[in-house]
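User: Sequence recovery, please. Input:
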């Protein structure tokens, strides 16, 4: 009798496992199906469409897996470009830090972060300030930074509640600054996945309630959102997906425009980007992606990026 019961339990467990596996396969297959259909659509894009967009298929990796020496392994998340200093900024999670990088991937300085639990995104916003989003605390903190800054405490700066109190570890990871519409763009990782906007004090359209507003999105065919960056030249947003291993361009209505895969063997990548955590674009249009464990990738259009041999560090605006 006991033997029969055990066999029945094992059979039910096996059946349940098959259902779970089948569901996972269907989800992955659906996204691959959508990617294939859009890839076919992408092949028919006119020259005018390409010229009016970032047009990711025109990019190729020119720097692949540059190690960011001196940072905690596997901890970087988020990436932003600062035009005032011509440098990059990223944040680390387990031991929260803000790190400034040269365009070639050298670590220029590291600034400890206090009062942050799980910083997942960083972005240069209006007035040269830096905005850091903490996924676990569900907050955005706008900070000021100078060449003399030694430590940053979130309690010294204004923070904004992003909502979704039950999001857990599926909150906001992507952040970008939209100077045309004077707003912060936010990407929620999943559950639900989506794009949102937030207006800060002193910007057009600011509301004292400070609530995040959902933005329209089409079929993004991605399983998560790990980072965002905004291109003011086209009014388009780049959406980075770690789990889908792709970079997607969407227009102002949230509709897909172009994409590239981050899998090895495609778009100039030999090994691929296994865990893409941050994306940004510089003034020349070069795209930078940071992936774990602390690796920098650079994508260029038409020709390789000419990178300075000796980076010059300039502090952020203190206005």
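Assistant: Recovered sequence (319 residues):
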């Amino acid at each position: 009798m006991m033997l029969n019961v055990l066999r029945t339990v094992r059979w039910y467990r096996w059946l349940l496992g098959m259902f779970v596996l089948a569901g996972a396969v269907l989800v992955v297959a659906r996204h691959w199906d959508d990617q294939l259909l859009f890839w076919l659509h992408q092949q028919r894009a006119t020259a005018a469409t390409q010229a009016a967009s970032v047009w990711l298929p025109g990019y190729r990796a020119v720097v692949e897996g540059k190690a960011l020496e001196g940072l905690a392994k596997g901890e970087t998340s988020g990436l932003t470009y600062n035009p005032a200093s011509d440098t990059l900024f990223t944040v680390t999670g387990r031991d929260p830090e803000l790190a400034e990088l040269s365009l070639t991937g050298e670590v220029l300085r590291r600034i400890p972060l206090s009062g942050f639990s799980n910083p997942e995104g960083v972005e240069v916003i209006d007035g040269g300030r830096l905005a850091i989003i903490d996924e676990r605390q569900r907050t955005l903190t706008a900070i000021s930074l100078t060449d003399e800054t030694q430590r940053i405490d979130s309690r010294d700066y204004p923070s904004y509640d992003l909502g979704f109190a039950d999001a857990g570890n599926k909150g906001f990871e992507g952040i970008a600054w939209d100077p045309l519409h004077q707003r912060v763009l936010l990407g929620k990782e999943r559950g639900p996945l989506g794009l949102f906007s937030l207006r800060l004090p002193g910007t057009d359209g600011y509301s004292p309630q400070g609530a995040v507003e959902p933005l329209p999105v089409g079929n993004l065919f991605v399983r998560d959102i790990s980072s965002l960056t905004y291109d003011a030249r086209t009014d388009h947003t780049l959406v980075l997906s770690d789990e889908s291993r792709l970079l997607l361009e969407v227009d102002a209505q949230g509709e897909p425009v172009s994409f590239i895969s981050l899998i090895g063997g495609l778009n100039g990548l030999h090994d691929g980007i296994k865990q893409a955590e941050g994306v940004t674009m510089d003034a020349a249009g070069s795209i930078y992606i940071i992936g774990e464990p602390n690796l920098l990738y650079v994508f260029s259009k038409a020709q390789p990026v000419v990178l300075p041999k000796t980076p010059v560090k300039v502090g952020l605006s203190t206005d």
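The chain has two domains: 1-44, 52-301.
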